[in-house]
Amino acid sequence: MPRAKGGFKTNRRRKRLLKKAKGYYGGRSRLFRVASEAVDHALKHAYAHRKTKKREFRALWIARINAAARSLELTYSQLINGLKKANILLNRKALAQLASEEPEAFAKMAAIAKEQLA
Questions:
Q1: CA distances from 56 to 48, 50, 60 (A)
Q2: Residues of the domain holding 112
Q3: Do the domain assignments include residue 3?
């Protein structure tokens, strides 16, 4: 009995996986078994890093806000505390954008926060 090499469905499955491995180096883009492992690893990392991305961006925003606040003689925690007391509800992303793109507006926010702390 001849060896079964796989028909239409097998080819379709392999083709789909090799399409995902397009652009990988060497055999990782051409050999099914190697490509399968590479794609599995890539998908695991992609899933995990979608979660980490959120943490990393929040940390970046906080660092930017802190740098801008310190230039106005406030710490990050004092600024956030003052804004909460003043009932100004802005998220970290918006505050970081204000700090980098509109420093005058950020300075006004910081002044309001300072008033609330005093």
A1: 13, 10, 6
A2: 8-117
A3: no
Q: Concatenated DSSP letters for 38-68?
A: HHHHHHHHHHHHHHHHHHHHHHHHHHHHHHH
Contact status, residue 111 vs residue 86, Cβ threshold 8 Å: no
CATH number for 17: 1.10.1900.20
| In a domain? residue 17 | yes
Give a yes or no: residue 2 inside a domain: no
Tokens of 100: 């980098």
If you ran DSSP here, which 8-state letter would residue 7 be given? -
- Structurally, the chain folds into a number of domains equal to 1
| Residue 107: both structure tokens together | 């300075």
Per-residue pLDDT of the chain (118 residues; tens, 9 = 90+): 788 878 899 999 999 999 999 999 999 999 999 999 999 999 999 999 999 999 999 999 999 999 999 999 999 999 999 999 999 999 999 999 999 999 999 999 999 999 998 8
